[in-house]
Amino acid sequence: xxxxxxxxxxxxxxxxxxxxxxxxxxxxxxxxxxxxxxxxxxxxxxxxxxxxxxxxxxxxxxxxxxxxxxxxxxxxxxxxxxxxxxxxxxxxxxxxxxxxxxxxxxxxxxxxxxxxxxxxxxxxxxxxxxxxxxxxxxxxxxxxxxxxxxxxxxxxxxxxxxxxxxxxxxxxxxxxxxxxxxxxxxxxxxxxxxxxxxxxxxxxxxxxxxxxxxxxxxxxxxxxxxxxxxxxxxxxxxxxxxxxxxxxxxxxxxxxxxxxxxxxxxxxxxxxxxxxxxxxxxxxxxxxxxxxxxxxxxxxxxxxxxxxxxxxxxxxxxxxxxxxxxxxxxxxxxxxxxxxxxxxxxxxxxxxxxxxxxxxxxxxxxxxxxxxxxxxxxxxxxxxxxxxxxxxxxxxxxxxxxxxxxxxxxxxxxxxxxxxxxxxxxxxxxxxxxxxxxxxxxxxxxxxxxxxxxxxxxxxxxxxx
Length: 465
Description:
Layout: H1 10-16, E1 21-25, H2 29-40, E2 44-49, E3 65-68, H3 73-78, E4 81-84, H4 93-100, E5 104-107, H5 108-115, E6 120-124, H6 129-142, E7 149-151, H7 157-164, E8 171-174, H8 177-180, E9 190-193, H9 207-215, E10 226-230, H10 234-237, E11 246-251, E12 258-263, E13 266-271, E14 274-280, H11 289-304, H12 309-318, E15 327-332, E16 335-339, H13 346-355, E17 360-365, H14 374-383, E18 384-390, H15 394-401, E19 407-409, H16 413-423, E20 429-432, H17 445-459
Helix pairs in contact: 2-5, 2-7, 5-7, 6-11, 6-12, 13-14, 16-17
């Protein structure tokens, strides 16, 4: 079975699985889902991880061989199929061993697509993809479709496909550049690219490769499919070149030929000369220009898939947002506290600053990704009354923004929150939007955001046990 690389027609590919030796590398959420699915389909599965993971055996089907605490080179040389965790770069030496031996190398998202019989709506981009994915799923459900959501959000995509793929009208998936790196045949019915701003350049050598990996979402599309692009983002708009699929766009700055846009304060759907109003832009329950963009992207995709405008309007009025994304966690003494811990790159923080009214005390910093900070400069100058910097990035951020706003340094997030509490006055917004990842002091952005929320509640007298 060496050198067998079948297409993404599920029947032929699955028929070959019982004769294949499958190795799953990385036993986080997606790896567990992939190993389980392959075992249930009859493959000979070995699951491997560098770490010891207590209780993992009980989470997998019988017959999966577990090798934890390190990788064995022989497994990579012997496997026919290697399923790689999205966190593992293509330069990994074990992947090179498998490739050199003729194994097919894919990721869990690719596996899900090969096993899925329902049309897939996939969302990628640097910022906003989780919100767009969630909004799109809710609009489709509100329109009467069954459209379960998974991928880089919530459940692994394979898990969603196994559990609900046969009954679903659509599967809605959030996919990252890391996941698309291992998804060579992905072919979504609808592919959405929200925006592309500098991020993950420690993994990707330059912006062009990073953007092109996201654009892989469109590479295999054909007639009857659609790509949805942000007309306001230059790096995204360059993928509007004609192809076999339909092209839709969204814009909060001007009318588009086909898709969704804002004009005179209203959201419209448009297909050529035919435009129809969805709702007022001010009817969105969640604040912020970025959320307006997210809603437009979801509307354009949902409209192509057959959703109705009334469902879009109802979601706009009822969608309360997601944790750690411009989440209001406290208001006291006229000061609003906002948790935007998901703002892990410069573009996200710039958009968040643009969206906030009044003066801002900005808490930023963490693990420095080395990104160009200039997109934040104009908004720091216009909006930030005090910049409170934490983490590894604090020194470089301080040098860059020192002439734009007063800067103070804090050793921890707790100290930064206390400084903000002491200095904030009525009308201010204290915004945690780090423009950095969190791994110097926290497990992930959610851990950081949860900690911030609890600190604010304790300071404002709303502490929880």
